Amino acid sequence: MNSSFLFDFSIDRENKTIHIKREFDANLELVWQGWTTAELLDQWCAPNPYRTETQTLDLREGGFWHYAIVSPEGKKHWSRYDYKKIETEKSIRESRAFSDENGRVSPDFLRTECIIDFSETSGKTLVTITEKYGSTEMFDKMATSSHKKGFSSHLQNLDKLLLTLKNK
């Protein structure tokens, strides 16, 4: 990974929102593919040493991604991202929640509304993520340096995957 690529993680406590900007050394088509294909998501979308295991991914408005983050000991933490609006290679609006292994959303946590925007300039893709937390408790857990470090870790996994995909 080229460390000169943009990574910005900013916190807006008043609005319980986290903004993340990350640049990738790959074109938009490849980044979109990595962000929306179950087999590829499973290869990068977890902070090290965890891994992702997709149960189902139905990429359409009204569809959802149901997956688990799996610890090195094999413990699974389930989540479900419901897709509200998708503009191919431009934007995804999703509602994130914790769930059980059957995809039933946990009533213990309010959902996180998320907007992911994609744009390409000169063969590099900028991904801008806005996470708006419904719960102060969850926001306080995520507005930390450990979330920033974990997020950075799994985005570095995407860097490696994109490099592999580019060289195929």
From TrEMBL:
<comment type="similarity">
    <text>Belongs to the AHA1 family.</text>
</comment>
<dbReference type="InterPro" id="IPR023393">
    <property type="entry name" value="START-like_dom_sf"/>
</dbReference>
<protein>
    <submittedName>
        <fullName>Uncharacterized protein YndB with AHSA1/START domain</fullName>
    </submittedName>
</protein>
<dbReference type="Pfam" id="PF08327">
    <property type="entry name" value="AHSA1"/>
</dbReference>
<feature type="domain" description="Activator of Hsp90 ATPase homologue 1/2-like C-terminal">
    <location>
        <begin position="25"/>
        <end position="162"/>
    </location>
</feature>
<dbReference type="InterPro" id="IPR013538">
    <property type="entry name" value="ASHA1/2-like_C"/>
</dbReference>
